[in-house]
Specification:
The structure is a homodimer. Chain A is mainly alpha-helical. Chain A has three domains: about 130 residues, MgtE N-terminal fold; about 120 residues, Roll (CBS-domain), CATH 3.10.580.10; about 170 residues, SLC41 divalent cation transporters, integral membrane domain (Tetracycline Repressor, domain 2, Orthogonal Bundle). Helices cover about 65% and strands about 5% of the residues of chain A. Chain A contains 23 helices and six strands. In chain A, the strands form two sheets. Chain A has a three-stranded mixed sheet with strand order 1-2-3. A three-stranded mixed sheet of chain A has the order 4-5-6. In chain A, helix 12 links the parallel strand 1 and strand 2. Chain A starts with 5 loop residues before the first helix and ends in a 5-residue tail after the last helix. At the A-B interface, helix 12, helix 13, helix 15, helix 16 and helix 17 of A face helix 12, helix 13, helix 15, helix 16 and helix 17 of B. Chains A, B: Homodimer. Chains A, B: One of its GO terms (molecular function) is metal ion binding. Chains A, B: This is Magnesium transporter MgtE.
């Protein structure tokens, strides 16, 4: 029994490599094809170009398709250059249509067209359909490899059908039932199928309470639905309820990862740049717009301090607390932002309602401001021997933190109401607003109380 | 066909509510029990206490168990107070053992003990076992409701067994095969089961290449495994390969959500505080340690500026660029951090290797520094009519950003090597290091070039 533990895996990979290098075709195929496609993919990625050439020679297009569909998009683009055109075309013919569509969506249209023309008509039609949906919608992420069964079939016949066609479908754990007009009419789980009398008809055992999504639905909403009901798959229908595809739970896991990475990317202002596969220059080009935009925000903050140059000239010590005010305002605001973004993303927000959540955040800000102000009013007199300074910094911080939580909580909700992605109100954006507010409060109080300093 | 669209759902809920309020027991039960447990839960959450009391009366403990296990932990604690003790005990007897364990892990031990003593011996034993594993490990999140089948059984008999016991198991889509010593020997998917000749034996069709996890494995590693291989479930074994539980994909989705929320929480320094169910004061208490710790960091940064008070006194205008230096250093560092944390979490980091990734980040920092320095050397002379100031700020920013990316990339890797959670190197921590470095570079250069200003 080949158990894929850390140690065995390396040893096993060593044997395959040896077979490959010494050109023992049979030995290589036997060992390699025994692996899970994902492990085949891991092994393949470690190879040099000359070794990869041998793999293309030793594996049929159908076998190589398994590896190709596990590759990242950037890797696929590199590998396709190494493949013979006929081999590549045969490989596309063996891949799941949704995987082909993902790839073709990223290459120049003329190239995609060539590939499409070489495919069977049915597959080409499915892929064109998938490509026609907007990115990140249910239609774009669904698969066309699903089985639908007529409502009036006998269970016995369905099981026979599964025996024949099952291996090609993405999942056979849920079978979607359609009526004569190809409209979604119900669902039968494989579980129900085998635990029921085989002589019954599908419509007798199917559940008509089938939850479906629309082709245009956002992928994040689909993810929340699958998560909520613990589904293994969900059917995708058009506006007139025609069944056109399914989305399986493994695709949804990728969506959840992707959305979480996106959320984090937006917190740190690097949308699309948290990809470790890019070169330094490409990564810099992707991140630079954010950093430069935020630098402009920094110039705005600079302008705010510039307004108080006179005050600063009289008491230079005030400059020392600029970082403290900025950091505290920024951190408090992004905490509130994180709470809101996550509760909007995971759907808990709807349960509690906007008003309650914002009020909760404001209350939290008041308490946080109070805790921090008290700490500072004890610390600053000890370190800087200046009670008035402690009072100014403490009061500023109290006011700033109370407001910072509201900014952090309200901005993403407003942006959500305007149907924009809540995470556009990214951390740095909220932080800048709070920096400016905090420093204005701080220097205004300091200027007003200047005579007592 | 009751289709749960947004509109129908409300209308349906209205009918159930009416039946409940007018005490039409039969009508209520018929409508309510037709709903998916998750929808029953949503409906139940909207009720007043007096209405909830009626629900307890109208539903059997078994029926109510379905709702109870969907509740959040905090909600469970509130609801349990409203239940009659015998009713509650019967309900626990009907719940999945892993759900009971999750609940009992959060209540005082004496209370948990009372519940455990009232349960059947088998269930109590399972729950005690689940409670004995460390939090966030495979053992703690696995379920004991799984079916294992002997290797020498005939497929025909297995299908018969499924007909009888299937409805109680968490998943029957994978059946794990054990030998006489209860050791994990293989796996048969339901798909294989129904597409094979029923007269064959399990060991003839089972796959022996079964990937399993250990009870002590981190839940994040389990999630990555399930994600990698697109599994619907994974078996959990002890160190001597005895099968003790399974983890299903729906639990893993919760883990992925949880870990993503945790990652984000750590980016914004609010571990455990991104929970919208807390009161203001509790939320403030949870977040305050972070904010106050970061405030202390702010005092350190203040100390750095304090060192250059003389320089500042001569050129107050230097204070104006403090936010710009801080923000740019902080933002660049957290971008690098985000790349590292996500690639550590999703496992892409291992593919690329530490050295390559850090070198990539350093290169990115050089380019970013260059872009920003050029922008500033054009802008500052226009706005502040001071070329020397532009040079100082530009050069400082170039050096700071180059270093900031390294700090952002290396710190999480070091922390990971030390087997700590990489996200402890949270955004604010990295930001503070970069703030201090950036301001020291800035004021050092300014002090050195003071005579030219």
């Amino acid at each position: 029994m080949v158990k894929l533990t850390e140690q065995n895996r390396e040893q096993y990979a060593e044997s395959i490599l040896q077979a490959l290098n010494s050109e023992e075709l049979q030995q290589f195929r036997q060992l390699f094809l025994e692996l899970h496609p994902q492990d085949q993919h891991d092994f393949f990625l470690e190879l040099e170009e000359s070794q990869r050439e041998k793999v293309y020679e030793y594996l049929s297009p159908e076998e190589f398709a398994e590896i190709f569909q596990e590759l990242e998009l950037e890797e696929q683009k590199d590998i396709i250059e190494e493949l013979d055109q006929t081999y590549a075309q045969d490989m596309f013919g063996e891949m799941s249509t949704d995987d082909v569509a993902d790839f073709l969506g990223e290459v120049p249209e003329s190239k995609a067209e060539t590939v499409l023309e070489g495919l069977e008509d049915d597959d080409a039609k499915d892929i064109r359909e998938l490509l026609s949906y907007e990115e990140e919608t249910a239609g774009a992420i669904m698969t066309k490899e699903f089985m639908n069964i007529p409502a009036d079939a006998a269970l016995r016949d369905v099981i026979e059908l599964l025996r024949q066609e099952g291996p090609d479908a993405e999942t056979i754990y849920y079978l979607y039932v359609v009526n004569a007009k190809q409209e979604l009419a119900g669902v039968v789980s494989l579980r129900d199928l085998i635990t029921s009398d085989p002589n019954k008809k599908v419509e007798e055992v199917m559940s008509t309470r089938v939850v479906s999504v629309n082709t245009g639905d956002d992928q994040e909403d689909v993810a929340n639905l699958i998560k909520k009901y613990d589904f293994l798959a969900v059917p995708v229908v058009t506006t007139n309820n025609t069944l056109v595809g399914i989305i399986t739970v493994d695709d949804i896991i990728d969506v959840i990862e992707e959305e979480a990475t996106e959320d984090i990317g937006e917190f740190v202002a690097s949308r699309g740049a948290t990809d470790v596969n890019l070169t330094s220059f490409t990564a810099a080009k992707k991140r630079a717009p954010w950093i430069i935009m935020l630098m402009f925000f920094g110039l705005i903050t600079a302008g705010v301090i510039g307004q108080f140059e006179e005050t600063l000239e009289r008491i230079v010590l005030l400059a020392v607390f600029i970082p403290l005010i900025m950091d505290s305002a920024g951190n408090t605001g992004t905490q509130s932002l994180a709470v809101m973004v996550r509760s909007l993303a995971t759907g808990t927000f709807e349960k509690k309602g906007m008003f309650n959540t914002v009020r909760r955040e404001f209350g939290t800000g008041l308490f946080l401001g109070l805790f921090c102000a008290i700490t500072l009013m004890i610390l600053i007199p000890i370190v800087y021997r200046d009670v008035m300074l402690a009072f100014i910094v403490g009061l500023s911080l109290f006011l700033t933190l109370s407001i910072a939580t509201i900014v952090g909580a309200v901005v993403p909700v407003l942006i959500n109401k305007l149907k924009l992605d809540p995470a556009i109100a990214s951390g740095p954006f909220i932080t800048t607003i709070n920096d400016v507010l905090g420093l204005m409060i701080y220097f205004s109080i300091a200027t007003a109380l200047l005579q007592y300093l």
